[in-house]
Amino acid sequence: MSHGPFQAQPTTKAALENVAGQLRQVLGLEKVDFFPVVKVLEFGLPSIFENFVFRVKEGPAMGDQHGLTFPDDSEIWLRDDVYEGVTQGKGRDRFTAAHEIGHLLLHSQRFLSRRMGDQPIRTNCDPEWQANCFGGCLLMPAILVKTCKYIDEVMDRFGVSRDAARHRTKQLNLSMQEVF
């Protein structure tokens, strides 16, 4: 999904952390550091959603979109280079996939509404903010991140980019040193 004419029901970071935790629990992954994104897309989500479809699309078909989600159709698409990055453990691509899983779980049409006019959207109603926050919670559960001492440890343990690790530790009010 991209920024557009829709807004979501308002939510909180705590609620998104809870949804991510519930998904991990359903999949038996609550204590796993390196969330197995590919296995979840290919096997986990189909076990939860009867009609779930995961597709890898060629770059020209996706254009600038790294991923697309159609929640009402239970379908996620990743651009082929992004999927390749996920399989190689690239943090940014893993985050893209987690973001799209967030859209799947959070943004069916019954939870979205059309925005009126050019009014700025409140952060907690922005589907992109929600999917980003969910992605961080899914890949880096608070309870596990709090055991880390360094940003680099967060990056290594959870398979995320430096930016994602920094953002998540800041969100959790954790002060961590960086080791380059």
TrEMBL record:
Pfam families: Peptidase_M78. Residues 79-169 form the IrrE N-terminal-like domain. InterPro entries: IrrE_HExxH, Rad_response_metalloprotease. This is ImmA/IrrE family metallo-endopeptidase.
